[in-house]
Design goal:
The protein has about 150 residues and is mainly α. It has a domain at about 1-15 and about 45-120. The chain is about 95% helix and about 0% strand. Helix 1 runs antiparallel to helix 2 (about 35-145).
Length: about 150
Amino acid sequence: MKTRIAFIAFCAGAALLVTSHSFAQTTSTTPVSSKEQQKAEKKAAKDEAKRQKESAKQEEDRLKEASKQDASLQKQDTQRNEDRTNNMNDLQKESNDKLKEARREEKEAKSVASEAKKASKAEKRAQSARKKADKQAEQAKKAAANGN
């Protein structure tokens, strides 16, 4: 930014020099006393310097405003990026939590299924043992009836 201002000031000085030189050439065609001519040239140079200074100030103000706007936009972009990152992190965490919960439920379901399978086998063994005991009791009854 300082280099821009320096460049603008340099251009203003160069323009002032060119303007005062061309003004001196155009005014020299009319017969005027040298004192009045110098006075007119001085006034023209002052006016041109004033215009150039005003122009440089306006350009500097414009550059400052543009710089402020750029900083504001960068700040907004940074905030949006941070918000987006935070959102993504929250969603990732939520997704990981749901995945952990699903795995835990799956493990629990497998455990319940395994226990149910074991209980079913135990029930079948118990039924088989009852049938065997009933059969033996029936045979003992028949043997007792035949033995009498």
